[in-house]
Amino acid sequence: MDGFLLPFSERNLGKRRESCGPNGRRKQTMAFIKLSIEAAGADAAPGSFPPSETDVWTIFRALRDARSVFGLRPGHIQTLQAMLSFLKPGHGETVFASNNSICQRVGGIDERTLRRHINRFVELGFIKRNDSSNRKRYRVRSSGGECISYGLSLAPLLQRASELIAIAQEMENNRRDRIFVRKQILTKLAHLEEHDPSNAFINHARKALRRKLSLPEYHALLANTDADCQRLTTPDDQPETTELPANDGQTVRHQSKSEKEKKDLDSNTGDEALKPDLLTSVCDQATSFSTERLRNWLDIEIHARTLAPMMGIHPETFEKAKNAVGAQKASCAIFIMLQLGKRIRDFEAYFHSITLGQRQNQFDPLALIKRLSETNERTV
Q1: Most distant CA pair in the chain: distance in Å?
Q2: CA atoms of 226 and 216, how far apart (whole Å)
């Protein structure tokens, strides 16, 4: 009843305030977010729009992502975003706002810049000008419901929705492929640095990666990196032959042992049952980063040295851990930690704790591998 005691103007003012947002503008409804193209066609021709489910802002984001294809700059995209915000649900796809209003909504650009942006969109076929005789923007309706709209029509932009979305998707796929190939190159370069630090190709490849390469250029660089990695496929270490003295007519016997076997034996203290195949199969997260098959403990150690810096573990820390607990335990720690993933907050602190800290004697790689294997079987 108190509301009826207020003057009519004050009651309307209260309703007006309720329907407005904090900036004084009318609150946006879902119709602003998803514009129904069929309902928007007060001045539309039949069949001139995409399906009614088409999201106007999806079309905008597609053009924003594909702007380099059309030679558009961020300023053009901001102008288009401002013009789209003037569209009202059920009132068509024509912008009736004045240049001054659009300039203010963009952020205070001058009118000359706005006209230049609009001309660019007209040249590309995204906007159509429907000018009146006095250059004003408005709509005229007849008694029969027919209307004529004078303004900036965004119908051509909406008609090309499928084209823009396809171009944006293709560019996104290209971007993801470039990132994937780049990671492959970096992994192989780390492998080259480990075995041949003086290779001149490493510096050449890293200088090339500083530039913005196209996907074919990335593939060419990856092929060259693969070629250099294949040249590093050195044969196994030549066995050391020790001649033993013969006893009473016995022939001279030879005892050989390669450096690789020595490292395997040195690192196998206390974990003889743990096999490389078991470690690589259970810890598939670490194995997936390797470009080659990990056949023995030496390959696992080399791969662990490559993964350690990526996890924030300094190479000197890994070397100290190797000297303290052996190469096998240090390598197993890297593989197991990467498999645990988000369960470990700080990889470096955890690695130091189980290899150099108080938990050094409690760290049992074989028991952890068996536990992870059982967990994987349950999830499968």
Answers
A1: 129
A2: 15
Under 8 Å between Cβ of 268 and 324:
no
Cβ neighbours of residue 124 closer than 8 Å, sequence gap 6 or more: 70, 72
**How does pLDDT run across 350-379, given as a tens digit for each residue?**
888 899 887 888 888 888 888 888 877 666
Ranges of each domain in the chain: 29-159, 168-231, 271-379
CATH of 29-159, one of 3.40.50.410, 1.10.287.1700, 1.10.10.10, 1.10.3470.10: 1.10.10.10
Q: What is the pTM of this model?
A: 0.48
pLDDT tens profile 215-237: 999 999 999 988 888 877 544 44
CA-CA distance, 90 to 148, in Å (whole number)? 15
